[in-house]
Amino acid sequence: MKSIVNSKEPIIIFTGPSGVGKGTIERLLFEFEELNLSLSCSATTRKPRNGELNGIHYYFIDIDSFRDKMKHRKFLEFSYHLNNYYGTLYSELKKIHEKKMVPMLEIETNGVKKVIERFKKENLNDKYNLITIFLAPPSIDDLRKRIISRGSENNQTLKDRLKKAEDEIKDSSIFKYKIINDIPERAANEIREILHKELGIDQTK
């Protein structure tokens, strides 16, 4: 049986370079029911792709509404990528917390830097327990092999992805936890133990 004793509202930020296996680890983590994880739904100004649903895959809003929310500080974080805005709404975090669940955000390293700076500037650590986790490959060569195995990259995009990955790994010291994804099941269980501690989950009772 679990017992959650941490009084601060938790926010998990899960980050890692493209191709490191974040999706696999997330699927494994969501199988651990005691964690009560809920993937946070981001807002974006881009148009929905075929099959995407509002409020499920993203909150699709127009650019004026997005900028108005930026102006009124409705976002924990936001970024501009490929001519569109993306961001995490405080209202989304509140909705998840009200369900007694734990929001998990998947954002890029630069976004994490902004969140950490904002937490310090606005004393948000008094309200939230920010849990930042960086998923790293065993080596850049291992990551190269994983990306090549996808068969979706040409030489230039492969080079660009690996350069970005190297930069992200260099910045990984800003994260509270760095996990090596050598074996997905092992990495997921390591994160599970971290979250037991951070969330105050005692399964011995």
TrEMBL record:
It is found in: Cytoplasm. Keywords: ATP-binding, Kinase, Nucleotide-binding, Transferase. Belongs to the guanylate kinase family. It catalyses: GMP + ATP = GDP + ADP. Essential for recycling GMP and indirectly, cGMP. Its EC number is 2.7.4.8. The keyword Transferase applies. The keyword Iron-sulfur does not apply. GO terms for molecular function: ATP binding; GMP kinase activity. SUPFAM superfamilies: P-loop containing nucleoside triphosphate hydrolases (SSF52540). GO terms for cellular component: cytosol. InterPro entries: GK/Ca_channel_bsu, Guanylate_kin-like_dom, Guanylate_kinase, Guanylate_kinase_CS, P-loop_NTPase. It comes from the Bacteria. SMART domains: GuKc. It comes from Mycoplasmopsis canis. Its main location: cytoplasm. This is Guanylate kinase. Coiled coil: none annotated. The gene is MCYN0206. Gene3D superfamilies: Guanylate Kinase phosphate binding domain (3.30.63.10), P-loop containing nucleotide triphosphate hydrolases (3.40.50.300).
